[in-house]
Here is the input.
Amino acid sequence: MKFEAVTIKHIAQELGLSTSTVSRALRDSHEISQATKKIVLDHAKKVGFKPNRIAQSLKERKSLSIGVIVCEIANSFFSQVINGIDSVAYEHGYNVIIAQSMESADRELMNLEYLTSSSIDGLIISVSTETKNFSYLKKLHERGLPIVFVDRVIDDIETHKVIADNYKGAYKATKHLIERGYKKIAILSNNSGLSISQERLDGYRAALKEANFPLRENMIAYCDHGGMIYNEVESAMKRLLKQRVKPDAIFAGSDKITTGCLRFMKQKNIRTPQDLALIGFSNTDLTELLNPPLSVIKQPAFEMGQASASLLLSLIESKRPQTKFETRSQSTELLIRKST
Here is the structure.
C-alpha cells in the first residue's frame, strides 16, 4: 500500500468544512472564529497533519533547509561540526541536508549539483582535498547562494568563514614536544593545497625557528587524503623512519592521520613515547582511552558548527545583500597525555 500524507483536503472532508476554511484556520487567519480554529487544529494534530514544505517553499520562495558538505561524516571533528550546525538550524526551524565528499572533487561537485537543485536556502561547506577548481562554487556565490566555509576555506570567495586557530594549535603542539626534549620533530600534514595544512605548517615552522632548531624539509610528509587512506600514512611513516636522521617525535596534522600513525606504530612494535612520541590534531573522545593515551590538539568543533550556522542564517535572512564578511578563528586546546 502506497503511503499517502494527510492533506488539507482530507481534514476538510472529515470535518465537513471547505478546504479554504481549513487552510485559513491553520494559518491562524482573523477571518476564522476561535472555535473553528480549535476544531481544525485539534483534528490536524490527531491525524498527524504536517504542512507540505515543498508547496510552502514554492509559495514563499524559501525551503527552510540548508545544505552541508564535509569530507566524511564519520570523522569525529566533522560529526561534531554537524551537531553544532544542526543545533542552531533546529532552533530556527531549518532542516539540514548533509552530504560527504569522501575527499573526492567529483563527488563534491555531484553533491553541490544535487543540493542546489533541491532549492536549499544556503550552504555550509568544507572543501575536499582533491578540489582545485572552485569555479562552480564561485558561480553559485555570484548567483546569490549564501555560502559559509567551515574549517577548510577558499580565499577567493568573499563570504563568512569559520576556522580553528590552526597556526597557534600547531605552534603549541610543536613547542610542547620541544619542551619535552624532542629535537627531531617530523610533521605528517594533510594535502598541501588545503588552507588548514598551510596554517599548521606555519605554526610548526614558527616553533622550530623560535627554538633555533633547523627546519629539515625531509621531516615534512604529506597524506593527500588526510589519513582516510591508511596506505598513505603507512608510506609516509616508512619514508620518515628510513632516513639517516630519524624523527624522535611525530606531529600529525589531522584526526585520521593521528590515529593512522598510532596504528602503524602498534603494528611495527614502536613504543610510544619511548621510541617515538606522537601528538596530533584530534577530536576523537577515545584518544584518552588508547594505550598510551594520546596528546592532542582539540578543536572547538561543535562551536565552529554553531558559528557557521549562525553566520549562514544571517546571510539567508538578511533583507539586504551583505558586503561585509568575517573570518572567525576559534582557539584550540592542548591536551597533554602519555604519548608525549
Summary: The longest helix spans residues 301-317. The chain has a mean pLDDT of 91. The longest strand covers residues 65-70. The two ends are 61 Å apart (CA to CA).
